[in-house]
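Human: If only I could read backbone structure tokens as easily as an amino acid sequence. Take your time, and here it is.
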Amino acid sequence: MRTRNEGLPSHDLLGPASADEVAVEERLLGVALPPSLQVFLLRHNGGWFYQTMVRFYSVGPYDYRFSRHNAAIRDEDDSWPAERIAFATDGGLGVFCFDAAKRSADGECPLLYFPWQERRVEPIGPSLDAFLPHLERMATIRFGVST
């Protein structure tokens, strides 16, 4: 099955963020990022997963930074809870976010998906570690391929 993304690499991730860049972004957001997301950013500071059209936000001097996109969401939707922090988008159809209001003892936060058209929250899993396999399912469902 051919896809509109055929021929692209499965992903294009940025190089690592610094701990200082993560700390600055947390101050701008007003909330600590979950440990699994901090580890991801210290390895890959955002980037694309092409087969799923998912773009992870970044920290530091990039256009796709967390604080910029979360501020834009709050400007558009004043009912968006302050504890709901978007960390990725799927090409404009919706955003993936974590719910810091329900942080577990280990600092992890449940992950949610918010499709803009449907205006409802869908639970994904307990942490970013649960989200990465979700990307595989998305690729299969949307395009009939795996990442």
About this structure: The longest strand covers residues 84-89. The chain has four helices and seven strands.
